[in-house]
Amino acid sequence: MSPIVYVLIAVAAAVILFFLFRKPAEPALPEKPEPKKLDKRRVEEGEEAKAPKKPAPEKKKEEPKKDASAERPRDEAKPAAKKEAPKPIVEPVVEEKAAAAKPEKPAAKAIDDDFGKPVVLDPATLRKGLSRTRGGMIARLADLIRGRREVDPALLAEIEEVLLTSDVGVKTTQALVQRLHERLENKELGDADKVWAALRAEAEAILGGGGRLRLRQKPEVVMVVGVNGSGKTTTIGKLAAKLKAQGKSVVLGAGDTFRAAAVQQLEVWGEREGATVVKGKEGADPSSVLFEAVNMAKETNADVLLCDTAGRLHTKANLMEELQKVRRTIGKALDGAPHETLLVLDATNGQNALEQAKQFKEAIELTGVVLTKLDGTAKGGVILAIADELKLPVRYIGIGERAADLREFDASEFVEALFAGRDAISTEAA
Ligand SMILES: Nc1nc2c(ncn2[C@@H]2O[C@H](COP(=O)(O)OP(=O)(O)OP(=O)(O)O)[C@@H](O)[C@H]2O)c(=O)[nH]1
Ligand SMILES: [Mg+2]
Question: pTM value?
Answer without folding.
Answer: 0.74
